[in-house]
Amino acid sequence: MLFAAGTDEAALAFVEIGALVVALALLSRLAGRFGISAIPLYLIAGLAMGEGGLVQLDVSVEFFEIAAEIGVLLLLFALGLEYSDTELRSGLRSGLAPGMVDMLLNALPGVALGLLLGWDPIAAVLLGGVTWISSSGVISKVLSDLGRLGFRETPAVLNILVMEDLAMAIYLPVVAALIVGGSFTTTITSVLIALAAVTVILLAALRYGRRMSGLVAGGSDETFLLTVFGITLLVAGVAQQLEVSGAIGAFLVGLALSGRAEQRANQLISPLRDLFAATFFLFFSFQIDPADLLDAAIPATLLIVATALTKVATGWYAAGRVGAAPKGRLRAGTVLIARGEFSIVIAALGSELVDGPELGALAAGYVLISAMVGPVITKFSDRIPLPTRLMRQAPRALTATATK
Amino acid sequence: MAEVRETKLPGVGVRHEFTTEDGADIGVLVHHDGRREILVYDSDDPDKCSSIVALSATDTRTVSELLGASRVTEAVAAVQQEIEGLAIEWIELTPTSPAAGATIGDGMYRTKTGSSIVAVIRGGESIPAPGPEFPLVAGDVIVAVGTAEGLAQMRDLIRQ
User: What ipTM, to 2 d.p.?
Assistant: First the structure.
């Protein structure tokens, strides 16, 4: 197709792709102006396209399909990159209890609703993942925009995000193996293989990370970018053929990089990830049947109300542990409401399931609302009236909570 | 010095804070990318910051210069007096200095003043323990150690 750049079909494809990417750029700018995440706007744009929508894609559908797949790979690659030795240790030391509370309070409502809707148990577990994971992208932006990075409850919030990332290292390979399915024994075997692969690579990255990263770290930016991007796609492709899920392959590549290579990958891959991830969000909702979305409206709303409350409870508990007063605890709870990129990634993992389309529609509606409403709620959380019984707990001096 | 408390912020950076002698809580947040923020905590609600100042790398240098410069000078002044009668002196060779163009041995500084030249700073680079054959040039800064009187004589010889 590249060689046919002069043909009408290529010209049409360029126009379609270009117009869509410019539309994404405008949405991103709009989101920046209002200080919200662009993800919900990308999702809305995807819904507006497709059958019966405002825009019809003709020849570029294939391109967007593959670009969206690459977007998932790069999102997971970037997630894998985030694991560092020190964060792993300090996260596990101080964050285990809040992390468990976070999982139980927020994943269970999703699982329960999935089962109530009569879905396959695996689809229900995926919905649990959708409601569990707060959006670290949205939340770090909100914390920084609202000038809350120095606030006392902030380390508690960030620790929860770290714990969720860590939990993904187990959750994603396990659900990916479950989705591939097969007989009981093959499923158990593939789950074990996936967990073993994660453990080996994580330990190797912690112990030999410098040497492994040294193999790819050198060279110009161009060499490095091509090496990392190439290896990520290659490993993902092989993993997919071995029925392990390409996304997990990309995640493992990110996990294996550390030190200097990790920093460079962060800098160089981020722009690429932003580009492909945007097409992923667009394409995700593009595939959603508007009828499914309408059906999902009521369950999604119920789920948002329920899991907004459970996130507030999680943040309330975690911030209390670091000595924050009620207002701070409420700030921590409300900032966690926003779900985003990984909720969509998790829902996308299940797109091949029988209940996949409904899961996708529900997740899209859920993320759409929570990513837009969450930041607004937390912005005004200091004005939320609290029962006077709670307000009696006066803020303690900072010295009282000095961390070692 | 007050007790400084350190908190790691995963994915963001490191925060240090302390309580001033007047009881105010202030802190500095260092981002992984090198940006810094000065945090002033609210006196009524120490969970919150009442004011935040974001500093670029250059701003950080300016602020630390303003806060720290006088202390460095004081410290140098103190060193000259502190070591039991021993002092250190930095002396710059002017273009007219008789020492310029001659070696350290030629000047016979140790014999005449009892003070030793322990280092020469030339163009921002320091040359420790120069020997008697070391040639001095105009613009060099010599670092000499000796008694206060000896150093005064050294200064006279070099600056003449």
Answer: 0.71
